Amino acid sequence: MASPPEVLPHVDAMQTALEAVPGLVVYLGGAPTDAGWSPPDKYAVIYPEPGEAVRESLADDRTDFMGVIQITCVGATWERALWVADRVRRALSGPLTVEGRSAWRPEDLGGPPVQRDDDTTPPSWFVPVQYRIKSTTA
Length: 138
Description:
By secondary structure, the chain is α+β, with helices and mostly antiparallel strands.
C-alpha cells in the first residue's frame, strides 16, 4: 500500500514555478510584517490549503492529491496587481514538477474583481486567484 500524498511538495512546486518569473517577488502565507519592511510595487502571496488524499481506484488507495491554492496578486496600482495575475497565470500554464508524482496543469478557478486595500500604507490593490492542483503517483 502506497503512502498518502503530502501537501508541502505541491506548495514547493508552485512556489518554484512562481519564483521563476522575472521581476516577481513571491511570499508564502502572507507578506512580511517586520518593522521597516517596505512592500515592493508588485508581488504574489501563496496561501495553501492542506488539500486532500483522494481515491486512486475502487481499491480505496488514497494516493491521489487534490487541493486549492490561492495566489493573492498585489500591486501599488490596479494595473500592477493585474500584471502579477497575468504572470502567475503564465507561470502556472503547464504541469507542476512534484518529485515522485505526475501532476496535472493547475486549473485556473479565477477570482473576484481587483480591490483596493486602504489598510496598507500606502494603499495597494489586490486580486486573489485560486488554482486547483492535482497529482497522482508517478
